[in-house]
Amino acid sequence: MADPWLALEFGADPAERIAQVGAAHEAFLTDGAAPHRVREVVRRSWERSALLDPETTPPVELADDALERYRAAHPLSRVLPLFRDLLGGIAQDGAHLMAVCDAYGRLLWVEGHPGVLRHAERMNFVPGARWDEPHAGTNAPGTALAVDHSVQIFATEHFSRRVQRWTCAAAPIHDPATGRLLGAVDITGGDHLANPQSLALVRATARAAEAFLAGAAPVEPDVVHVSALGRDEAELRVGGRRIRLGRRHSELLVLLVDRPEGRTGEQLGLDLYGDDRLHPVTLRAELSRLRRVLGPELLDSRPYRLRGRVRADFRTVTDLLEHGDPAGALDAYPGSLLPGSDAPGVTRVRRLVDGQLRAAVLATADPALLAAWTATPAGADDLAAWEALARALPPGAPRRPLAVTRIRQLLDEYDVGRATSLQRTQN
Q: What is each CA distance from 117 to 57, 66, 101, 149, 168, in whole angstroms?
């Protein structure tokens, strides 16, 4: 297939494909085998969704006044007229829905024909519901957020059986200044949506939204924006340029951001290579190449430091924590700092950011924040966080059985204190 994000190849029989993927879905639920008859993006999403009950219904986390306040404060509220202008016809044609979600998969707006909306309500496809993969399984907006790419999800490719009568296409939307994931725009309807046009439409709408936000944002001259959370290669934005760095240059950039006062070559070498692997010639060559990439106006030497004002996403997280805003910090946190790096200095900063955020979230005992933390790669295996989530949820809460199940799995893996911990969680 030319485009792996499209659900159907040209000329494919939709009914036949529904049956093939449906059989693969049932086989996956029965024996957990990774099916080869489904697209790679779907197979990986099923594996991420494997803890869910396939009959699950996503929880509604925001309603009434809380939903209105959250929507009003969200950056995508400014783009809602554009969404309605570009997708309004689809939303009112009696066969489709337009939906917009935040970076955690919470649906902010769901619009369309009243009859279609009533059908969608049966699976909790409503404003305030949580449609990220950890809560809803494979679906277009949730999977688009998980892989940070536009995607179609067709019929039986959905993990939840309740959603398998629908087909959807979604594309992620980013803050044009920082690159931070803001959410996704989605169109949902019947099997006829499995075509290149629907995917192209949401892609174009997402790009138009980013362009609108870029035009509406105040101009900040000489500000360098660094994005390094949840990605192995950092991205730098300055003066209208977007520069994606390689792994080693990403590590150097993070180390320079971490110490804005500047670093000597020896200090950088120790944080980059460690005590026993210090290579001054190699380091100087890397810094020389980095200067050519960034431009001499951005990288100073003696000591090595970045010029101008620098805003980095990992510093945004720690600044919000220092101001007592763990919810804002978690919302600004797409994942760990350069997770693939083993450079000692980067590892130290990564542990510091993750540790501060984790401690702040645990201290809140807020089930929404705890659930969001356990949905991150850093929190997915955090036994203490899952235990805190189970304690914070009331006995009848839909997510509590999932939390208890995850605790059992982690205790089996760790093989420590199982009975004591489970008893403490369930009391």
A: 16, 21, 16, 26, 14
